[in-house]
Amino acid sequence: MAETADAGADSKKGDTRNPQAKELYTRAGELFEENKFEEAIDLYTQAIRLDPIYSSAYFNRALSYALINRYDNAQKDAEKVMELEPDSYDAPYVMGLINEYQGKYEEAKEWYEKSLAKNPDYQQAKIRLQQLTAKLGNQQQEQQVQMPSMMPP
Question: Among 102, 94, 87, 80, which Cα is nearest to 128's?
């Protein structure tokens, strides 16, 4: 992943040098683990205000938004992560989740494939892609069974 030249960036990708932003991020993570997604979003937002290139905060906020069905917000944050970290394989994975949650399975499949193109060993993306491919295959089979034959008897 490319290093960011901004003073807010840390040597660890996605991290921050701003201790206040880091503290907010940590507290948000605790709320996320407690399934308090709205409260976590508020703290991730505060962290982002303190460090506008804090890609980890954008990433976790995107995931939080997706889990409460606020897909437009989730997509914007995932896109911001991809802008800040073009080599990120997590952000395309989250884009896959967002699309899958909305029933956009073909788009989700493409995003999981993009994630795996950046990191072929990314197990979460592999599993989601396998499950989705199986689901799509089953849907196609069901559609074929439901379509009556147009051949005369």
Answer: 94
- 88 or 3, which is more confident: 88
What's 30-84 look like in SS3? HHHHCCCHHHHHHHHHHHHHHCCCCHHHHHHHHHHHHHCCCHHHHHHHHHHHHHH
3-state DSSP assignment of residue 2: coil
User: Which amino acid, 27?
Assistant: R
Is 94:112 a contact under the CB 8 Å cutoff? no
Structure tokens given for 133: 């491919």
User: Which pLDDT value is given to residue 6?
Assistant: 32
pTM of the model: 0.81
C-alpha 65/C-alpha 25 separation (Å) is 15
Q: What token pair was written down for 105?
A: 């399975």
Q: Amino acid identity of 65?
A: Y
